[in-house]
Amino acid sequence: SIGILVDDAIVVVENIHRHMALGGRSLRQAIPEAVSEVGGPTILATLTVIAALLPMAFVSGLMGPYMRPIPINASAGMLLSLAVALVVTPWLALRLLRHHRQGAAHDAGHPRVEDGDDQPGNAQGAAHDTAAQHAAAPRGSRLLGFFQRLMSPFLDGERATRRRRLLFATMGVLVLAAVGLVVVKAVILKMLPFDNKSEFQVVVDMPEGTTLETTNALLGRLAQVVAKVPEVKAYQGYAGTASPITFNGLVRQYYLRSGPIEGDLQVELVGKDERSRQSHAIARAVRPALQKIAKTYGASLKVVEVPPGPPVLAPIVAEVYGPNYGTVRKIATGLEKDFKANKDIVDVDTSVEANSPRDVVVVDRERAARLGLSQATIARALHTALSGDDATYLMDGHARYAVPVRLRLSAADQASLSQLLALRVRSDNGALVPLSEVVKVRKANWEKAIYHKDLLPYAYVTGDDAGAADSPLYGMFSLVGKLDHATVSGHHLGQYFIHQPPDTAHYAVKWDGEWQITYETFRDMGLAYSVGLLLIYLLVVGQFRSYVVPLIIMAPIPLTVIGVMPGHALLGAQYTATSMIGMIALAGIIVRNSILLIDFINHALTAGRPLRDAVIDAAAVRAKPILLTGVAAMLGGFFILDDPIFQGLAVSLIFGVLVSTVLTLLVIPLLYYAYLHRQGEHPRLPGAVIEEETT
Question: Which of 179, 214, 283, 457 lies at 20 to 30 Å from 648 by C-alpha?
Fold first, then answer.
């Protein structure tokens, strides 16, 4: 917003400079008239920028806290800059430009007027004589000659109307072509690009039944690969326990990872100024080698980066719902295969647990009763053998508390079912009975977890996109297209994108992950954009007292697309939420330019200038402040162009302002000319009623 904040001051100072260049009056006389001439349009233009930005403060969801500071701070800054431009800037101009401007006017041959000579009679006499002069471009100026050559084909001759229509049609085609860059994937859509963080995480899920030692061995091999990366500063592994909790881990529930089959490897990178690659590029580069090692262990491996925005369970999430949970698990397993079949999707995992065998010891109650054994006695014996019991306590004279003596089988005997069943248990009559005489062992699987979301049972499959697009949206929609024409585990799945299925009567998949955040954010920002456009329209209607002129003023807003989308394609930048913020800000910036042009045309027509000359003069006179404000906004964007998060905002501002500013200087005067030309030789100007009543 640095460039936008100086726009008001630029317009005021440039108009003071223009009035002094016309000569015939002192700086003290010129400043009030110059500020008064652009004061109304400047106030209106500032309010339009605020109207475009402020609705973004009401974006809901997790992205709300990320977005809210931008519109609030920018709006407050715009109000302060307006006050400075209307109060402080004229005073500074009077203090700093007095001697410079008087000398320049004298050297140019204009009559020199001292500040002390501004008598009321002189000012009133000069006002009528110079009104038309102030509403016209200086004769012989380069800008005037340029715009005369540029606009004459669209204003003069029998084919002028046809040329104007062809120009407007060309603008429409260019807008459609710019939007088409998204369709052909020349511009990639993404919620937020990955930031250049100083860490990433490797999450490992081993097959069911894997020992803690095996999990730790895999982490050791992964650490060897990570250690060879030159940008890695340190790493730390966690086998069978959770790593320190983070915001991302809180959402993904990594703090609950505590089984022997689960492991984490946290990797710390050197500082940003000590490496050329960003953290995302490093994570992508190291993933294939890590996946190759994990595959030899049959493990599921995910390279997890710190998200730039609100964290989600995974970039791509497919939630499966249905009437039978066993079938839901089968469908989720089938979806997992479809995920893995897509070469661009990586880090595939599922909530469906693999079968984990176990031995179930079943007590033969009748036989145990005949032998004088209770179930509690048998269970207590098994517990002592496997988990252990404190048989006694030992006071060694050194420990503060008694040291328990734990009684249990050795690890080798615990792993042997025959050794376990050979244990003898004393019956009620004192006889020792082997456990094998009163129990039977049957094979079974451990019970699997049943997941619920909003009271509906479901299973899910997760993944990430690491293809050329590097955006989860494209990986997700490639699967969406496949599911439209195929079945999964013999079932055709209904697909939901915004909400869960209303019930579980039919098998369906609901797409979640980054898509959900993207949809909610762009939905809210689209609504904010619409509200901003409506507020801009109402503000301009109130100023010009016309319902058509605001539409002409807002006509260049779509032209920003001609610069924004090709700009993203040219720099290879993704179109993100920050790019959308830039698009919204551009609406207010471009409307500012249109207001300055149309307000000048109205002043020129009121002063008696012909419509054709007024249109050309408006472009020639207002070109300098419009171009200066555009350059200021573009320079402000260059400061954040290399920031991974706000690059989209910078690209939108730089290319959007560049293209739309140039086109506005041509399109707006011609549109307004066509509108007034239809009304005949004496068009009724917007706001004329107010002027007549005031007169």
Answer: 283
